[in-house]
Amino acid sequence: MLQQKSVQFMKLLFGFTLMLAAGVQAAEAAKPNVVILATGGTIAGSGATTTTTVGYTAATVGVDNLIKAVPELAKVANVKGEQVFQIASENMSNEHWLTLAKRVNALLAQRDVDGIVITHGTDTLEETAYFLDLTVKSKKPVVLVGAMRPSTAISADGPINLYNAVMLAASQEAVGKGVLVALNDQINAAREVTKTNTSTLDTFKTTELGMLGYFQGNKVHFYRQSTRKNTADTEFDVSNLTALPQVDIVYGYANMGPVALNALVAAGAKGIIHAGVGDGSLAAKVVPSLQAARKQGVVIVRAARVGQGIVARNGEANDDELDTVVSDTLNAQKARILLMLALTKTSDTKEIQRMFYTY
Ligand code: ASP
């Protein structure tokens, strides 16, 4: 009798365990699947002491350890990691971007991937974000995240930033919003965000057009969205590209001469971003070199070193006469990205101007 009872009890226990396991499986299946692509940067950096917040080494911690450091990630998504590169982002190149965009597109084409987080150095994070904003062919969330303090520092910002980024990539709210940047409890759009401070935690800002939203209470809160076309709605396709056209930047300043511009053109630049003073003004000493470059087929885009506002077409320079393009509100480093991609499609300046008003 006692034996029969204990067999019954064992059966019940077994059944209960099976139900529990099925429940866990169902809960995991219900959670979104997020892939973390790690590329290096300070978020993966380590310093000599816990108070080392400058003079540390970027890109030393692998993706598995980044994930292990934040067990809370499992609450919001099923997370997998891939080490794509392990570099400081000042070394990010066009080739890295092409590799990354292709990997993101391949992953997002999979039914079992709901979103991507990319860990990245903060120095060129805004550039990679905008490159992906123009070349990812999916509406699924893609979120870039970095940190201003290395992983070994007191109050390192990497873990909370990573948690927020995964929560964002796993959220329905982020679908169709273009590539996003998550740091310091704030959500910004790839096109507009920029690094504004060398070292403080609140360095990423969309100063005038405004951030998109916040992280608070384990939730994402959106308040606005960029009006410019992005991701699946762009005309750019990098799937068959192995290189991008050479585009360089010249920086405007008082007493500027044409030396840098001439050198870049002689080195084979197909496009030049002129980050002019004020509203993208051109110094008289530079104009003949710009005209000569244009005659050789080099496409010139007038951007502004001030970093805010619209560069007015036919404002400080006669763009119709010079056959130059204006950057609209893109800063010089992002104008470089759009011009490279534009040059993969056309060298017609009217078409390229249309693209600068579209993306
Ligand atoms: N130099 C570093 C990098 O961009 C800085 C950082 O990640 O904050 O990789």
The stretches of 5 or more residues where confidence is low (pLDDT under 50) are: none
Q: Describe the main β-sheet briefly.
A: 8 strands, mixed
> Structural class from helices and strands?
alpha/beta
Judging from the principal axes of the Cα atoms, what is the shape? globular
Number of strands: 14
Rg calculated over all Cα atoms: 24 Å
Q: Into which percent range does the helicity of residues fall?
A: 25-40%
How far the N terminus sits from the C terminus, by CA atoms, comes to: 78 Å
What is the second-level CATH architecture of the largest domain? 3-Layer(aba) Sandwich
What do we call the CATH topology of the largest domain? Rossmann fold
Given the structure, what is the number of helices? Answer: 11
Reconstruct the topology from this structure:
Blueprint: H1 2-30, E1 33-40, H2 63-68, H3 73-76, E2 78-87, H4 94-108, E3 115-119, H5 125-135, E4 142-145, H6 158-169, E5 180-183, E6 186-189, E7 194-195, E8 204-205, E9 213-216, E10 219-222, E11 247-251, H7 259-266, E12 271-276, H8 287-295, E13 299-304, H9 319-322, E14 325-326, H10 332-343, H11 349-358
Parallel strand pairs: 1-2, 1-3, 3-4, 4-5, 11-12, 12-13, 13-14
Antiparallel strand pairs: 5-6, 6-9, 7-8, 9-10
Helix pairs in contact: 5-10
The structure holds aspartic acid.
What does this structure look like?
- The protein is an alpha/beta fold.
- The chain has helices spanning 2-30, 63-68, 73-76, 94-108, 125-135, 158-169, 259-266, 287-295, 319-322, 332-343, 349-358, and strands at residues 33-40, 78-87, 115-119, 142-145, 180-183, 186-189, 194-195, 204-205, 213-216, 219-222, 247-251, 271-276, 299-304, 325-326.
- The chain has an 8-stranded mixed β-sheet with strand order 2-1-3-4-5-6-9-10, with helices on both faces.
- A hairpin with an 8-residue loop joins strand 7 and strand 8 (204-205).
- Helix 5 (125-135) runs parallel beside helix 10 (332-343).
- The longest helix has 29 residues, at 2-30.
- It is globular.
- Residues 41-42, 58, 88-90, 121-123, 146, 148 line the site of aspartic acid.
